[in-house]
Amino acid sequence: MHASTAVAADPLPSWRDRASRQAIVAFVEKVTARGSGEYVEEAERIAVFDNDGTLWSEAPMPVQMDFVLHELKRRAPQEPELASDPMVQAALAGDFDALMAGQSHAGLLRVLQLTHTGMTTDDFRRRVRAWAAQYRHPRFGAGLAAVTYTPMRELLDYLRNNGFTTYIVSGGGADFMRAFAQELYGVPPEQVIGSTTDTEFVLADGVAALRKTSERMFIDDKLAKPVGIHERIGRRPVMAVGNSDGDQAMLEYTTLGNPHPSLGVLVHHTDARREYAYDASPPVSGRLANALAVAPSRGWIVVDMAADWSNVLHPH
Amino acid sequence: MHASTAVAADPLPSWRDRASRQAIVAFVEKVTARGSGEYVEEAERIAVFDNDGTLWSEAPMPVQMDFVLHELKRRAPQEPELASDPMVQAALAGDFDALMAGQSHAGLLRVLQLTHTGMTTDDFRRRVRAWAAQYRHPRFGAGLAAVTYTPMRELLDYLRNNGFTTYIVSGGGADFMRAFAQELYGVPPEQVIGSTTDTEFVLADGVAALRKTSERMFIDDKLAKPVGIHERIGRRPVMAVGNSDGDQAMLEYTTLGNPHPSLGVLVHHTDARREYAYDASPPVSGRLANALAVAPSRGWIVVDMAADWSNVLHPH
User: Fold this and answer.
1) In angstroms, rounded to a whole number, what is the distance separating the alpha carbons of residues B55 and B303?
2) Do A49 and A186 sit in the same domain of this protein?
3) Chain A neighbors of B208, CB-CB under 8 A
4) SUPFAM superfamilies annotated for this entry (chains A, B) (predicted)?
5) In which band, very low, low, confident or very high, does the pLDDT at A1 lie, cut at 50, 70 and 90?
6) Same domain, yes or no: A107 and A40
């Protein structure tokens, strides 16, 4: 009876009692202990999380790409112009090399534009939710929850229960993630920071709406992550969690020159059996090389997925 | 004793018992009454407020312009290049016509660039706070609080006490307002939406910082207000409060086509004795003409400052 109560009370049951867990718990206990000298008031307890590869799996391809393909397949039969676009044809044929070609990945941007702009924000949300309802990971099965990491969902809850505000800061589309971030992660729309383009205000037949355009693109990745954080939060986070070189600047902004105590965490994908194993050569995106190399000198925690997590994917 | 208790319990003591107050209270009571059919859950109780002319006075000139002049005066003696700029000379001579000339107000943008970019966000915040500490309104006296409207501060508190989240959505600079919005309005940095430019991530001597640049300017006014609201909040507000045509699109986005009950409020400056009286011909900015004309058909509340408010400026 006592033992099971103790287990139930563990806020991080999927984290083995190893260095990563110990460092996270020590940090949270330190910044929440009044009079500890390292106490951080609640309003400043900002924790930022990457999404792809950090909160959910980004293999064998980023989840958002599944939405792109779903939309292209759904629309191509009724939209000849869309169906005849060479990049749509490349996407539907699974030719990701064609989409990713060139420095600016013009093919990828083209199919993103075709599937993410031109409709109102309300319509877009409905499309994402319709897609999400039928999503199935090729290996892990049905539902978006099936690709999320249980230890990370526990960590989000643990931080919020300790007065932290948890933000997603991802290269993924903000409007895309907002359609399910509350449900999956307990993160409301206003705490989702991601890639954006401008919307356009339209007022017709007594209804005001915002139409998604391709203008003023903001890609919330690499050096732009701290930029997005400042623009949207206006405070320096005290904790940052990522898994790739795209998160390095965000971790640096959080941990270098912060007047508050801070913690940087990198998730290292070491578990081919339960999820995937990669770092410098990821399946599609999520390269981890430079950030891993500087982690020791920066004092960042590196989570060894295989060793540190007793559960990986969320039960569904 | 009983009478004074009743007065102390009034959440809006500076609002006279007239139509404006009654409409606001009726709206708040309706959306917070479970089972009312018009109940709005807390997470969706988003209220957005313009700042200049809505939360504080924008006459005889916008407060942020005082910061610009203060910085130019402070720096000109040490910075010959800055001092020799024709637009700096126009500003220091009080020639606002020169600054506002042309469709794009190039002179104004020039002095804003000189005073709002080139430094880190931390440095900028220190400069704003140093200026704020010595600020004095030419008519109302010392301190930023002296130009804020007591009824609006009461309204912000009243809404928050009823589960609303209150955002500032202003054409003013986001970083500028964030330096004092918590203190003046109880609005934390992450709930301040304003005009922005990009920052640039810099890492030097083991310290990460963000340097303010002139790139990718976003002017959070007029049709861009709903755009900023969606980008930053990702939800449609249920209440919007403004005072000028620059707020019209924000009020339309809030009240036209909203699946929730909604309320639009315009402050009409009718009180030359206690503050200022203007609408279509404002001192510098804050023109109210078209929004006032459409208010009745939109069902928006128009606050008559002279008649509706028993107090105007905050005691200091």
Assistant:
1) 13
2) yes
3) 226, 249, 252-253, 255-257
4) HAD-like
5) very low
6) no
